[in-house]
Amino acid sequence: MSHEIDHSRWYVKKAARKALVTSAWASGYLAAQDRKAIGPRVRVLTYHRFGDSPYDPFCVSRRDFAEQMRFLADEELAISLYELEEFLRGERDLRDGSVLVTTDDGFRSVYTDMLPVLIEYGIPAVAFVTAGLIDGQPRPTPWRPQPVDPQDAYLNWDELSRLAESHVAIGSHGWSHRSLGELSPAECRDEALRSRETLEGRLGRAVTSIAYPYGTLADFSPATGQILADCGYTTAFTSQHGAIDRNADAVSLPRVKVEGGEALWMFRLICRGAMDPWRLVDESLSRMQRSGR
Ligand SMILES: [Zn+2]
Q1: Other C-beta atoms lying within 10 Å of the C-beta of residue 202
Q2: Which of 4, 42, 57, 275 has the fewest CB atoms within 10 Å around its CB?
């Protein structure tokens, strides 16, 4: 049975990202931002799935991911969540251009494809997992309606424990992947607490960080940030693009999305800030960006 999928959106988005990254470099934007910077800037990369899935922007091939991690290792740019948290508390200095690797949703390929590469290159990372979906079955996505690849299954507790033992910090991605920005304060608190307490109970490790499900402007606010802080989180990450400096608000930290099907030169420029201006797209098109997980 064949499934007709319209790939036009993939090509349009790829062209837009490439145009932005290229022009950020060619126009001197990156150099100008470097001159303006008053302190070190950190970028937090967001991944989702790993493996071979053409036309799926949320899936990065293992080969591309290995090239990217080798680059971070060679340049000594990778930092841990712990180091970022110390930096935000003013207890640690970091090199300008430092990078923290994160992945959202807790798909099984984090264990099968991401972890071996992290170990090979000695890169610390954070896996944000939706606690209520651990051990869950694969679900269709807009890019792969059917059949669903078993690799799209969620991590199980055993795999999650092994990730945690391999220096991958485990963070929360909510309990049910609902938008915290659209919940009542009581529901938001329940998502935040239930996910943290479950992960801590099962893994025996402190969970200090959370990534907002979806992470668009509609999905977080100063009120949600306050609830998360009250629930014991010291850092919370959005999907808004940009760099983090030492004055950043620790409960609405921006990240930079890494997409599948992009060359290493783009990754290198993205790490230098070439996708930071995508924030303007985040701000104007936040509703359209909710189609993915
Ligand atoms: Zn998600």
Answers
A1: 15
A2: 4
